[in-house]
Amino acid sequence: MSDASDEGDMEERTIRVVAxxxxxxxxxxxxxxxxxxxxxxxxxxxxxxxxxxxIDHKLSFRYSCRMGICGSCAMVINxxxxxxxxxxxxxxxxxxxxxxxxxxxxxPLLKDLVTDFDDFFQNHKxxxxxxxxxxxxxxxxxxxxxxxxxxxxxxYLPFSECIKCGLCFDACPVANTNKEFLGPQALAxxxxxxxxxxxxxxxxxxxxxxxxRGVWGCEFSGSCSKVCPKFVDPALAIQILKGEIAKKTLxxxx
Length: 254
Ligand code: FES
What we know:
Order of helices and strands: HEEHEEHEEEHHHHHHHHH
Helix content: 25-40%
CATH class of the largest domain: Mainly Alpha
Number of strands: 7
CATH architecture of the largest domain: Orthogonal Bundle
CATH superfamily of the largest domain: Alpha-helical ferredoxin
Bound molecules: FE2/S2 (inorganic) cluster
């Protein structure tokens, strides 16, 4: 005997998937249309895999984990930067039974829905996304332990959930128009390490981002935090860093 949710699972609807892809020969975007079958739990990524396996083997998109962990299936779905594997197809198809997928625009386009993350990861690496120790050699030679309380851990934990999907960068109006700007992902990670009680590089970290390329480039639109699938809140992290820089400057420490 099946219950109501089982019956919902069995119900199929045909959804029109419109993929916006760039045609290099004509130097403009074009739309490719596909029709896929969707059940209650079908995700946008499932539908793209369905298209690739059965309709258009050449359609390119990136994915790995299929469960919102690796961050590689980021794209623009109905105008919003989203993870394809975390987006339910029927809920975004709405009453017109149509969705539009497009590549992210804050990253250089490689092919179809695949974008290049080199610059993004360069920005990430530039904030030194690791713990800086004053006596690194001593620490590793003697395997010294640094204790941390729950309260100290909670200061940075929400900001350590970043999966580097690039959605916040894509949604940021500054990052989209100013290639120099480090962007919300890198700056949120700068805060993640700044807020960690084990880190000895705090003032150097603040000096590095006390620039227009860093926190002062942020115009606080808040769009980064709205699209983060892990609720990291880069906008908050950046405002805290601005406050810390202002405080240290007034104290004459910077
Ligand atoms: Fe890994 Fe979507 S496939 S986050």
